[in-house]
Write a structure and sequence with these properties.
Helix 8 packs across helix 9. It is elongated and about 65 Å long. The chain has eleven helices and no strands. The chain is mostly helical. Helices cover 64% and strands 0% of the residues. The longest helix is centred in the N-terminal third of the chain and has 43 residues. The chain has one domain.
C-alpha cells in the first residue's frame, strides 16, 4: 500500500488516525494498513451482527405478542395501552425509553409514507429496544421472553442479557466508525455466535459458514 496522502489524513483526522499510528509504531504506511484492516473487519462483523439482530428482534417480537394476547389485550404489544414498560416494571407512561424507541421507529416508517404496520415498525427498531426488554430493568418480562431462546443452557436472564449487551456495544462501536484494535473481537464474535445458537443452532451454523471475520482477524497487519 502506498503511504497515505495528506488528503487522506486530512479527511480521517489526526485524532481518529492516532490509534492506528500507534498500532503502526509511528509509521504512517503501517498505520494506513491497520486503518484499512479495521474497516474490513468492521464490515464483516456488521454482516454477522445484522443476521443475529434480525433474528433476535423477530424472536422477541413474537414472544411479546404472545404475552400480549395471553393477557387478553387487544391489537399489538407495540400499541400496548397498559404502558407497562417503565423502570423496574412500573408503568412508565409515554416517556419510558422503550416507548420512545418504538415511537421513533414508527416515525421512520411514516416519513417514508409507508403504511404503518407492526412488521414495519419492528424492522425500524434499533438493538437498544430489544436490549432493554431482556434487561434487569424489565425483569418482569423475562419469564415470557425466555422461550425465545430454546438453545440456551438455562433460563437465567443474565445468560442472555450479557450477550445482548456485548453485541449492542460492538454494534455501537462499528456504527460510529470506532477502532477495534484494542477490542477482543474474537470474543465478541463468539458472543454473537453464541446468542445465535441460543436462538437456533442452525442459525449459528449458517452465520459461521458464511462469515469472513475469522479470516480477516488472521490478516491483521503485523500478525
Amino acid at each position: 500500500m502506498a503511504e497515505p496522502s495528506q488528503l487522506q489524513l486530512r479527511h480521517i483526522g489526526p485524532a481518529r488516525f492516532g490509534p492506528y499510528l500507534a498500532a503502526g509504531q509511528g509509521d504512517a504506511t503501517a498505520a494506513a494498513l491497520h486503518y484499512h484492516w479495521n474497516a474490513q473487519l468492521s464490515a464483516a462483523l456488521w454482516i454477522d451482527l445484522g443476521h443475529t439482530e434480525v433474528a433476535l428482534r423477530n424472536a422477541l417480537n413474537e414472544r411479546m405478542q404472545h404475552r400480549h394476547l395471553e393477557r387478553g389485550r387487544p391489537g399489538h404489544w407495540l400499541d400496548d395501552p397498559t404502558r407497562e414498560l417503565g423502570k423496574a416494571g412500573v408503568p412508565g407512561g409515554r416517556h419510558a425509553q422503550p416507548y420512545l424507541d418504538i415511537q421513533r421507529a414508527r416515525e421512520r416508517v411514516q416519513r417514508r409514507r409507508e403504511r404503518v404496520t407492526p412488521d414495519r415498525i419492528v424492522s425500524e427498531t434499533l438493538i437498544g429496544l430489544w436490549h432493554q426488554l431482556v434487561s434487569r430493568r424489565q425483569m418482569f418480562l423475562w419469564p415470557d421472553l425466555a422461550a425465545a431462546f430454546p438453545g440456551a443452557p438455562n433460563r437465567r436472564q443474565d445468560t442472555i442479557g450479557e450477550l445482548v449487551t456485548s453485541i449492542r456495544d460492538l454494534g455501537n462501536r462499528i456504527v460510529h466508525r470506532h477502532q477495534l484494535l484494542d477490542l477482543p473481537v474474537a470474543g465478541r464474535h463468539e458472543d454473537l455466535c453464541t446468542l445465535a445458537r441460543y436462538l437456533d443452532p442452525e442459525l449459528e451454523q449458517w452465520i459461521i459458514e458464511h462469515s469472513t471475520v475469522a479470516g480477516i482477524l488472521e490478516q491483521r497487519p503485523g500478525s
